[in-house]
Amino acid sequence: MLTVQPDIIIEAANPEAFKEVALPALKKGISIATLSIGAFADENFLGHVKAACEETGAKVYIASGVIGGFDL
């Protein structure tokens, strides 16, 4: 998926799956829309995500509402 270089990836799996795909995608400048907002409870991971976004200009779009909060 990353070799195709999409503009955005939509993640709807779980926090662990999000952690696996997020940093490699963001470091390539690919933005992500995620439902797995519970992954951001890991402050170390959150710091790496912020750094990757600042470095490449990629964005993380967080889904709001009950669906995005299922994994909490």
From TrEMBL:
Top-level taxon of the source organism: Bacteria
GO-annotated molecular function: NADP binding; oxidoreductase activity
InterPro entries registered for this protein in UniProt: Asp/hSer_DH_NAD-bd, NAD(P)-bd_dom_sf
Classification via Pfam families: NAD_binding_3
Residue ranges occupied by any Aspartate/homoserine dehydrogenase NAD-binding domain in the UniProt entry: 4-62
SUPFAM superfamilies the record matches: NAD(P)-binding Rossmann-fold domains (SSF51735)
Protein name (Swiss-Prot/TrEMBL): Homoserine dehydrogenase, NAD binding domain
UniProt organism field: Salegentibacter echinorum
